[in-house]
Amino acid sequence: MSRPQFDPSTYAAQLAEKTQRLRELLAPFAAPEPEVFDSPREHYRLRAEFRLWREGEDRHYAMFEAGDKHTPIFFEQFPIASRRINELMPRLKAAWQASPALGFKLFQVEFLTTLSGDALITLCYHRPLDAAWQAAAEQLASELQVSIVGRSRGKRLVIGKDYVEEELQVAGRLFRYRQPEGAFTQPNGAVCQKMLGWAYEALGQRDDDLLELYCGNGNFTLPLATRVRQVLATEISKTSVNAALANLADNGVDNVRLVRLSAEELTEALNEVRPFRRLADIDLKSYQFGSVFVDPPRAGMDVDTCELTRRFDNILYISCNPETLAANIAQLHDSHRISRCALFDQFPYTHHMEAGVLLQRR
């Protein structure tokens, strides 16, 4: 993980630069003025990863500038990370310094926290984990009130849970999420909550069905399912699928069918190119899709998936890479126009940003 250039005094200027960049990317498509959702200036990041770097007899939390893996930058506190992470950092360091069972050949530490206060720590080792490690980790988990996952080559030991539990509020309703260790989750919880609210409002209340591609752990699925008759959602990661199924059950959302398929595979299924056993009990023709929701990886949608979305009157698109978002919109611009767009500043003090657009049929 590279180090963000943290300087709250520059926040307004960097957000203005991002807003202008999004305007320029979407200008060829006559986009309206973007709605801008800012971030807390500090303590906004719910996860953090550190390498441990030895200097003398001590090891320190370390990060590196992009492209330089040899010049560590040491941290005692990390102001962009959640207050929970900052509270845990010195206590964990004291623990590995005091306990050979915990500290021996420990080379990386990962923190995963939530707005609701849950926390999980992953400890990565260049050695096998043994009974002494497990006993020390159980004691530490109890003292810190966290879950701990130990990782070494070919082994993963879990003390407590292998996920954290988050609570996010959308339109007055509280949704609860299991967020697994090692799986993707939105790093900026405050901005994620704003993204969910924007998507919920942009979709509107509908009496038809929603197709969702790249649904992950159901982050958007849960609130959007309350706006439509039923949802067919797809995700390829088995870990994320299992988390999404648990989240649907935990929140009593019963109008979603979730299928472990990639977006490309679902495109083939809908185009009747080939059948899939995972769709054997789903009648695709029974759905009345009026909208599609996509939140693809940085590469954006491939050409065929992008062409699939053209079938729908409404395309609700969340993007972590506005350049590939613009490329996808260019493919769809002859049939769909941008009626709403938004900037979500998930990553302050970096050039990265999330964007959202609602594309509607002309």
UniProtKB/TrEMBL annotation:
<dbReference type="GO" id="GO:0000049">
    <property type="term" value="F:tRNA binding"/>
</dbReference>
<dbReference type="InterPro" id="IPR029063">
    <property type="entry name" value="SAM-dependent_MTases_sf"/>
</dbReference>
<keyword id="KW-0808">Transferase</keyword>
<dbReference type="GO" id="GO:0030697">
    <property type="term" value="F:tRNA (uracil(54)-C5)-methyltransferase activity, S-adenosyl methionine-dependent"/>
</dbReference>
<dbReference type="GO" id="GO:0005829">
    <property type="term" value="C:cytosol"/>
</dbReference>
<dbReference type="InterPro" id="IPR030390">
    <property type="entry name" value="MeTrfase_TrmA_AS"/>
</dbReference>
<dbReference type="Pfam" id="PF05958">
    <property type="entry name" value="tRNA_U5-meth_tr"/>
</dbReference>
<feature type="active site" description="Nucleophile">
    <location>
        <position position="320"/>
    </location>
</feature>
<dbReference type="InterPro" id="IPR011869">
    <property type="entry name" value="TrmA_MeTrfase"/>
</dbReference>
<keyword id="KW-0819">tRNA processing</keyword>
<feature type="binding site">
    <location>
        <position position="214"/>
    </location>
    <ligand>
        <name>S-adenosyl-L-methionine</name>
    </ligand>
</feature>
<keyword id="KW-0949">S-adenosyl-L-methionine</keyword>
<comment type="function">
    <text>Dual-specificity methyltransferase that catalyzes the formation of 5-methyluridine at position 54 (m5U54) in all tRNAs, and that of position 341 (m5U341) in tmRNA (transfer-mRNA).</text>
</comment>
<dbReference type="InterPro" id="IPR030391">
    <property type="entry name" value="MeTrfase_TrmA_CS"/>
</dbReference>
<feature type="active site" description="Proton acceptor">
    <location>
        <position position="354"/>
    </location>
</feature>
<feature type="active site">
    <location>
        <position position="320"/>
    </location>
</feature>
<dbReference type="GO" id="GO:0030488">
    <property type="term" value="P:tRNA methylation"/>
</dbReference>
<feature type="binding site">
    <location>
        <position position="219"/>
    </location>
    <ligand>
        <name>S-adenosyl-L-methionine</name>
    </ligand>
</feature>
<feature type="binding site">
    <location>
        <position position="235"/>
    </location>
    <ligand>
        <name>S-adenosyl-L-methionine</name>
    </ligand>
</feature>
<keyword id="KW-0489">Methyltransferase</keyword>
<feature type="binding site">
    <location>
        <position position="295"/>
    </location>
    <ligand>
        <name>S-adenosyl-L-methionine</name>
    </ligand>
</feature>
<comment type="similarity">
    <text>Belongs to the class I-like SAM-binding methyltransferase superfamily. RNA M5U methyltransferase family. TrmA subfamily.</text>
</comment>
<protein>
    <recommendedName>
        <fullName>tRNA/tmRNA (uracil-C(5))-methyltransferase</fullName>
        <ecNumber>2.1.1.35</ecNumber>
    </recommendedName>
</protein>
<dbReference type="InterPro" id="IPR010280">
    <property type="entry name" value="U5_MeTrfase_fam"/>
</dbReference>
<feature type="binding site">
    <location>
        <position position="186"/>
    </location>
    <ligand>
        <name>S-adenosyl-L-methionine</name>
    </ligand>
</feature>
<dbReference type="GO" id="GO:0019843">
    <property type="term" value="F:rRNA binding"/>
</dbReference>
